[in-house]
Amino acid sequence: MKRNPVYEKVEKKTDCSFKTGVYEQSYFKRSWHFHPEAEILLITKGFGKRFIGDSVNSFTTGDLVLLGGNLPHAWISDPVFYEPETKKQCSSIFIQFDPIFFGEIFMRTPELNSIYELLKFSKRGLSIKGYCRDEVISMINRMPGKSGIHRFTGLLHILELITKCELDPLTTETYLDTRFYSKSTRINRVHECIMENFEQDISLKKAADIACMNESSFARFFKSHTGQTFSEYLNEIRVDFASKLLTGTAYSVSQIAYESGYNSLTYFNKKFKELRGQSPNLYRLNQKDSG
Question: The domain 182-290 is classified under which CATH number: 3.40.50.300, 1.10.10.60, 1.20.1200.10, 3.80.10.10?
Fold first, then answer.
């Protein structure tokens, strides 16, 4: 059963129909998340690995992607950015928007048909390349300073220009169709907590408190909705993240165990083998061979 990454609520200003901004930190946070809004993201500084749906690729300065709504993603900076004395910085410019705000009638006009088709295609995640990519980047760099109608038309111009670029889909065609979504608000709240804190100790009591239930009632409720115990669910999320790190980074197995929420390497190896049918080292080796 596929598990959701954490839901991210995109907060926008009351006088704006979409959000654009700049992210600047010493490294990109490792949150594996999604949001209903589509997103254009330009890396302006930094390098590492990006995880989009079921794809894992390297990224560096100038990396540019368009992500459809509800497509899980995470950017993980190279280990050098986490060193205590490093002076390296990571930054990006993002535009997050809900295609619905354009309006169905507006989007189906002949003049916008190419953008309409682009947004449908973007559900797979698109790497933006080609001769017009530099012009797209130039327009994106100016977006955070725009306001009013110029901001709105700026987004349309960016999307129109992207339709003329070389676009490489990043996920398999059926990725979103096979995802699991829970209709239970309580389960979703617990899942959000797990995804935000799975590298820490998360007790059954804490999860029950989030669901506003006692432990025994919550344990029964949780299993009836997910088909798993809370512990099984948590381990699956941790092992799923560990699998991505094994495939996409050069971190040691012990470091990956720690990053995934395991304080015991022996326990991590045991749980990983239970869920993947092989040890972490063998999994990494087989993934390299298959690549």
Answer: 1.10.10.60
